[in-house]
Structures
1.
Amino acid sequence: MKTEERGPLSGLVTVKADWDTPAVIILDQTELPNREVYVRLTTPEALWKAIYHLKVRGAPAIGVAVAYGVAVCMRPFADAPFADFFRHFVELKKYLATSRPTAVNLFTALDRMEKCILQHRDLPTPEIVICLQRESEAIRAEDAGACRRIGAWGLGLLTPGMGLLTHCNAGHLAVSEYGTALAPIYLGQERGYQFRVFADETRPLLQGARLTAYELQKAGVDVTLICDNMASVVMKKGWVQAVLVGCDRVAANGDVANKIGTSGVAVLARYYGIPFYVLGPTSTVDLACPRGEEIVIEERKPEEITEKWYARRMAPAGIHVYNPAFDVTSHELVSAIITERGIAYPPYAETLPGLVRSR
Ligand code: MRU
């Protein structure tokens, strides 16, 4: 498979950089599905807010946006002595790291940019800035290549005509292109597999309804939107032969942090005897994290549940709200973890390190 091949949504750019008038350009996902609006981000604060408010979201896309963001935000310091340049980078890194805590790609991208600076510390700072640009483009290109390969590995587990269920959005909009959980669906679409996809709407922020339904429909895939609490029904009816989901962080034992509600889908899949596949690049596997309990789970504002999508409030003022953005699916419920390097099967503590270290 050629890496220059482009996915079915190649006209839709999730995140890119403009190096001439330096800016990170993102497709504002909070405007979807109604409007395709591109936004230019030129300051650390604008980037932080775009990540926090999910204008750019999905673990790999956050990593790419942050890498571009570092290259863009370090440009004003291009003429500074190295010590000042590095001090500004350390402040920037610390600040951006507070935007969202769960997706490991944010942190690996920041670490990679730091490593790039330190590796080139003997060069004049304007040249270090060019190295940062190249590194950020490399992170994007690696992500795109990884997604294509994840698609190919994933498709090998599926057969034409299958019913598939997915949760949240782990598609083109969550990565640099193509997707992780949705990659086999797009590849299957190109090869005439005729999958029937069920997209959970994914309360409370509706990534399934707003984003997955949007991008699959735009690509011509047969997609049906369901509320999260309908997954059991479509499974019971025999309409689902496999579940495909993405991941924000995979612990060394195979526990998977992903969008809130994922673990419930996994429990249902086990009950109905349906394989539950997790798809993500090896950069999302965090071998330094032994088990899911160690993963920091982001908690978000109550208003996302009580009023955000409604014309008027839908819960009493002052009600206690618990709004975790992610949950952890036990490795025991995961049938396989599909990466760009191949497929890991249980026991993950033994199979994942081999795949990750072959990176
Ligand atoms: O809060 P979000 O929309 O960033 O959550 C995204 C997910 O949970 C995705 O499934 C995950 O990041 C994988 S994206 C390829």
2.
Amino acid sequence: MSENCLFCKIASGAIPAKLVYQDDDCVVFHDIHPAAPVHLLMVPRHHIASMQQVEAGDAAWLGRMMALVPQIALANGCNPGPEGGFRLLANSGKEGGQEVNHLHFHIIGGKRPWQGHTAPNA
Ligand code: AMP
Ligand code: ZN
């Protein structure tokens, strides 16, 4: 636990969030400002600033987290199959657009009727 870290406080329960999943490695909750119909944040329980700090020794917990992503995405409204899917995103560091300096993965999905073929990455 890192003092004054928002996501440490959410992981410990000190600050409330709309949790959808938790285990010994991580918590998953709804982003407070959803950018799509499904917008979850997957956060490791232990404090690590970003993907920039990840090392080989982190492979076990990180691998377990990654292996959970498909089932968490499906269980929370992402659509199955090639016509569905989701985006998995880890902003890392200032130049990576990271605002909360505790590693987290955005799981973003659901139908976006406003998203045309001309802007597939919007
Ligand atoms: P990033 O720019 O990758 O660091 O993203 C941080 C994300 O955390 C943003 O999408 C915010 O909307 C989200 N966020 C900030 N505070 C909270 C909170 N208290 N509960 C849930 N999500 C939050
Ligand atoms: Zn933290």
